[in-house]
Amino acid sequence: MTKVNKWTLGLAAVGLVSLPSVVQAEEKPNQLLTALSSTMISGYVDTSAHWNLGTGNGNPPAYGYNLPSKQDGFNLNVVDVTLEKPLDEGTWSAGYKVELWFGPNASVLGNNIGGTSPATAGGGDDLAVKQAYVALRVPVGNGIDVKIGTFDTIIGYETANATTNPNYTRSYGYTIEPTQQTGLLASYQINKVVGVTAGIANTWSAGINNRSARTESSKCYMGAVTLTAPDSMGALAGSALYAGIVDGFNSVIGNDVTSYYLGGTLATPIKQLKLGAAWDYAHAHDNSFGVTGYAQSVALYASFQATEKLSFHARGEWFDITDAAANPAFAPGVPEEAIAFTGTLQYDLWANVISRLEFRWDTATSGPKPYGGSTTGAPNKKNEVLLAANIIYKF
Phi, psi at residue 256, to the nearest 5°? Predict the structure, then answer.
């Protein structure tokens, strides 16, 4: 008699398969189960609580995912579900990745139905395809890794996934960067020190299968290089310097944007202490902001791992944008110039849980008052202070 495993009995119990068909299938290899056996499922549930000191929270600082609806209350930020078959060591290895977002953060990612960008606007659906691509390895030299589909942008110190960032809130630098592209991306590790990435996509801005409104042939081009300090550099081993550029059509402002990025992380002789820095510059070409439209940000980072569970993270940043782009009439929460300081205490008491307390102070140093007020009233503050708690469960 053919042996039926517990997994198959479970499927039969809920009516997904019948036992006769199972017995027939058990007599030959099941290609579907073989494929699924190499697929990994992961993700996280991201929650928070925001308390804005003072009155008026209709126009919070316009950094990534800091929606007005999140202020002074408890929040579900996003649920991330990822299915992935990573590349193996085979010479012609193949795999895939599908990453889905559910919740308010998905509504501003830009890769959803009816979504908008940048990651502060809101108004889209609470479901987004964050990434979905086929991964291929071409056995040339050390191996060229290729992604075809929708993938995360190649530049930036911070990422869309809060689980990998040192702080809970996003920087202004992250906010002015692209988020995802749909196209083809190739990466090659020349040696242990130098890695390069190059790609071509439909547009600078997110939006699955989005197209440029300028010409049919208009495309987005990107490239980056990473330098990693080898073990021979002692205490500096593992430090990295990263430079990248993304140039293409931005469907939100209706013209081309070139994003430049330079960033790095520095290991120090104090093993628990790591430092970082990032510079972002986005140049909008001859759009509604004017020929010289731009936004730029400089951020400095410091992280200290006090114990296995306890760590401290600090970020200081400066932000500047073309004056006309900071008009409260159409850009609430966007200052002409601002500085921001963020301090984060992280204590991972529970297994698989990231737990953070964060203090953030934003102050506009130039231009009209961009913060505060009501959703229907004018902003009335140049300073905004946020106390936030962030709890994330990873699976």
Answer: -75, 145
Does the bond joining 230 to the residue before it have cis omega, within 30 degrees of 0?
A: no
pLDDT of residue 29: 54
| Domain 38-394, CATH | 2.40.160.10
Domains of the chain, residue spans:
1-37, 38-394
Euclidean distance between CA atoms 224 and 198, whole angstroms: 7
Nearest to 152 by CA among 136, 171, 169, 174: 174
Task: Supply the mean pLDDT for the chain.
Answer: 86
Tokens 């809130």 sit at which residue? 169
Query: 13 pLDDT exceeds 80?
Result: no
The token pair that represents 337 in the structure block: 């110039």
Q: 110 φ, ψ to 5°?
A: 100, -10
pTM: 0.86
pLDDT 10s digits, 327-376: 666 677 899 999 999 999 999 999 999 999 999 999 999 988 999 988 77
The alpha carbon dihedral of 64, 65, 69, 70 has a sign of negative
State mean pLDDT over 1-13.
44
H or E element at residue 10: helix 6-13
Q: CA-CA distance, 309 to 332, in Å (whole number)?
A: 38
